[in-house]
Amino acid sequence: MSHSNCHGCSLCLLSCPMWQQRRDVQYSPQGIFKALQHNATNDEIAPALFSCLLCGACDVLCPEQIDITDTIKTLRQTLFAKGGEIELRKNIGSLLTQPVAETRIEANTIILPGKALRSMPDTLTKIQTLLSNETHAAIATDDGDDIALALEAGIHISEQRRRNFLEPLQEARRLYISNAHLLRALHQWLPATALCALGYSLSQLGELTSKLKKSDLYLIEARSFHFDHKQKITHYDQLRYQQGCQTNLDLQCNAIPTAAGVLNTLQPALDATEQGNWILSGRNVQRIVVECAEDGLAMSQVTRQPVLHIADLMEA
Amino acid sequence: MDKQHITYPRNTIGKIPPCPVAPDSLQGIPRQQTNPARWQGEQWPAFVVALKQANIELRVAPHNTGTYMTDAGGLAYGKPHGVVIARGAAQIATLMQLAQQFQVPVTTRGGGLTTEGESVAFGGVLLDMTGMSRVLHIDKTALTVRTEGGIFWHLLAEALRREGLDYLSAPLNLTSSVGGTLGVGGIDVNSSKLGCSADQAIALQVVTPTGEIVECSDEMHAELFQRVILGYGQFGIITEATLRIRPYTPLRMHYYYYSSLRNAVEDLIHLDRTEACDYSGILTMMDRAITLLVAFDSDERETEFLNHHRQAVRGYGELPFAIRTAAYYAVRPWRVKEALYLYQRKRELFPDLQPAHHMQGGQMIDRTVVFSRAVWKHWGGRQMVIPDLASSVDKFVESVERGNAVCKKYFPHYTLYCVGIKLRADHKPHYELSCIPPDAEEWAYGCEFEPMMGDNSYSRDQLQSFKNEIYDIGVDLGTSYYRFGGMMKGYIRRALGDEMVEKHLAMKRQADPSMILNRHVIF
Ligand SMILES: Cc1cc2nc3c(=O)[nH]c(=O)nc-3n(C[C@H](O)[C@H](O)[C@H](O)COP(=O)(O)OP(=O)(O)OC[C@H]3O[C@@H](n4cnc5c(N)ncnc54)[C@H](O)[C@@H]3O)c2cc1C
Ligand code: SF4
Ligand code: SF4
């Protein structure tokens, strides 16, 4: 279904952090699509396009089943291709020229942790231990942070860079990926490989989740959750009722995202504090457990309560 | 046109007057039930300058105005000259003062869930109230909430549920706004016990058509309060509301199945009268498959019902009903298509009425999310045609049966949704010229007639004719309607009488001298 199928029911607004912060329909899938139906130029909708967190909550809600996040990414690509968003391009430019490691990794299982988790070596070691069952789980030397950013921003990725990134991963049977944009792209690029969302996989380990307490707020990573909502909601629904912990699920059973994301950090369109406060509002929690390191960083900015990665429950 | 020289056709209740349009046009569609004429923008340029001087942002780009082209009905189309996003009572007050001065129409829009074009602007300013949608204060002790008027009920629920609280009753539709609903009604499956949403407002902050900001309630500026509540946005813009709330409870649901519409409706009325349940409503699939929904706020209430009231309910449980239905069709093989439709409908719809992640221990966590998403998925689309009849208890069975016969004439498949509305004796003045029928005592009853259009396409004329036939029943029986405004405003005089309409028109002229606020909805 394309944006021309939008009939303006407004359901997408209900879980949309971009709309919730602005309370202006222009900043919502409905506003973007209605504007396009009335011949808006890409420049006219650019502010909304680049305020979107690509959290995917709207994809779950749209009764017309419009693939909203993909449409927004495509529109971002078109905008960049036509030379728009010059400032953002300048900011992103340096991040895209990352050193490229081409070494093939001799492992069946590889973890792509992303930048934030890399800066938490102890946690990363625990994750490695937790995910090394029959075979050793290796950490990728190149986990494609730049590619993830390009995917999020809608910037062209050179074929050579893409090949360099994929080359070391070709032989692996299973990949654990932290970044949801990368996870989605890898589904197309490596269709034969078992691809797992890192946080979701950790949340399936009873040895970790059994340590969740009633006074915990468990933060589901929104992007990969919404990408596969039908399957994952059953798991998280059971998790919250079995463990009695609170989660960031809203009444629609969508996960309220933090404003974490490289794009929003580079060019803040949404207020990370307001978003964090909304997640915490009215809740009585003593600890926040995250499955995504970036979410952990975002939450530690807004609360004095301890914020820890789910893998760190190994010790607790 | 000079307002003094408008003449209105005089009719008496119970008579369907001759069609004022050409004799060869569709029967029963008077001229006012098509899109109203667009305001021509006589003083628009000067008004725009004045707004700018007052620092009010006005959006005039075609993609801004085009966003509000139609409402949920999808049959009325109109474009405003410009859009203002509501940001505060003071901003709206200035907007209204200037609009009066320059005689520019202002159309207020909340969720835009009207189906007769009431929230569509045919020129002038479209005021988008969703810009004012924050919860201002929750009083856990007094069990009240103060909220901005443009908030969606669903977002209000999100905030209240964090505190273990809930609103009382609201439309089973996630994107209707508090302000838009208080002006229209707001019917939930618990309205037979708790009344309509409009009856739960304790106080309002209103911007009048002439731009005063007034706090009103049953005690303060009571006359304004009476006119704004259920007033279709004619007497003021609701910018803030104080509402009653309650502790949150999940629902214990039961469904009973009927193959007689009359029995189901009679049982619904009986359950409401005896206060046997906390939630009740009827949802039909076809004449042979009618569902009576009954639900409870507590285990005690549920047990009490099962012990003392269940035997009075003539509907069957799911399994006995399935066996009876199978037996019925087994001896009527020529009706196999009907049987298959029922089976398919049950398979598609029922899982959506109790999705696992919205249930816990057999209880429904959030009725509005479940029902609203099911409504949009199974009945929603570009065009939503939902005429209705709102009657007193005595006239309800006949209204439903006659409406059902009309549906059958137009559509192979349709749904009837019936609910009771408990009335407040002290709110009689609120009910004047509203969806609450004047002859209703203690309870009013509403029935919506919703065609299942699926992928079929129906002409606008056909849909309009269908609505007219339903509304004609109301004129004949002397009922009211939930959706009598907008393109259906012609029915107001016919159903409720000239005297009542003239009385309110005189009040409207006094409150809104340029007749600019929410034009074409009622007047
Ligand atoms: C799919 C569907 C399901 C529905 N289900 C139900 C249901 O279960 N129960 C029920 O009661 N109704 C139901 N409705 C009807 C709808 O919910 C009501 O019309 C609704 O309450 C309108 O709210 P809104 O915010 O969409 O108002 P709008 O459609 O935006 O406006 C309604 C009217 O109020 C005026 N208005 C809007 N905001 C304000 C304000 N702040 N101050 C003053 N005037 C204002 C508008 O000008 C307009 O005349 C349904 C409609 C649809 C399309
Ligand atoms: S992806 Fe998230 S932020 Fe973007 S439009 Fe959808 S709900 Fe809003
Ligand atoms: S939910 Fe889908 S159809 Fe509805 S307004 Fe949003 S994008 Fe449009």
List the helices and strands and how they pair.
The complex is a heterodimer of chains A (316) and B (523).
Chain A (H helix, E strand, L loop, with lengths): L16 H6 L6 H9 L4 H8 L7 H5 L6 H14 L4 H11 L12 E4 L2 H4 L2 H11 L5 E3 L5 H9 L5 H8 L7 E4 L2 H10 L4 E4 H6 L2 H4 L6 E4 L2 H6 L1 H15 L2 E2 L14 H5 L5 H9 L6 E4 L2 H8 L6 E3 L7
Parallel strand pairs in A: 1-2, 1-3, 3-4, 5-6, 5-7, 7-8
Helix pairs in contact in A: 3-5, 9-11
Chain B lengths: L43 H10 L8 H5 L15 E4 L3 H14 L3 E4 L15 E4 L6 E5 L4 E5 L4 H9 L3 E3 L10 H5 L8 H4 L6 E7 L5 E5 L4 H7 L8 E11 L3 E8 L2 H13 L5 E8 L2 E8 L2 H10 L9 H13 L5 H18 L5 E2 L2 E2 L2 H12 L9 E5 H18 L3 E9 L5 H4 L11 E9 L8 H18 L12 H7 L1 H14 L12
Parallel strand pairs in B: 1-3, 2-3
Antiparallel strand pairs in B: 4-5, 5-9, 6-9, 7-8, 7-9, 10-12, 10-14, 11-12, 11-16, 13-14, 15-17, 16-17
Bound molecules: flavin-adenine dinucleotide and iron/sulfur cluster (2 copies).
Question: How would you describe the overall organization of this protein?
Answer:
- The complex is a heterodimer of chains A (316) and B (523).
- Chain A has 316 residues and is of the alpha/beta class.
- Helix content of chain A is 47%, strand content 9%.
- Chain A folds into three domains: 3-84, no CATH class; 109-201, no CATH class; 202-315, Rossmann fold.
- Chain A is built from 18 helices and eight strands.
- Chain A has a four-stranded parallel sheet with strand order 2-1-3-4, sandwiched between helices.
- In chain A, strand 7, helix 18 and strand 8 (307-309) form a beta-alpha-beta unit.
- Chain A is globular, with a radius of gyration of 19 Å.
- In chain B, the strands form three sheets. Chain B has an eight-stranded antiparallel sheet. In chain B, strands 4, 5, 6, 7, 8 and 9 form a six-stranded antiparallel sheet that branches.
- Chain B has three domains: 3-129 and 500-511, Uridine Diphospho-n-acetylenolpyruvylglucosamine Reductase, domain 2 (2-Layer Sandwich), CATH 3.30.43.10; 135-247, 2-Layer Sandwich (Uridine Diphospho-n-acetylenolpyruvylglucosamine Reductase, domain 3), CATH 3.30.465.10; 251-497, Vanillyl-alcohol Oxidase, Chain A, domain 3, CATH 3.40.462.
- Chain B is globular and about 75 Å long.
- Chain A binds chain B through residues 7-11, 13-14, 20, 23-26, 30-31, 34-40, 44-45, 63, 233-234, 237, 241, 250-253, 281-283, and chain B through 61-67, 69-70, 72, 74, 85, 111-112, 128, 130-134, 150, 152, 154-155, 157-159, 161-163, 174-175, 356-358, 360, 365-366, 369, 373, 376-377, 380-382.
- Bound molecules: flavin-adenine dinucleotide and iron/sulfur cluster (SF4) (2 copies).
- One iron/sulfur cluster (SF4) is lined by residues 15-18, 29, 52-58, 68-69 of chain A.
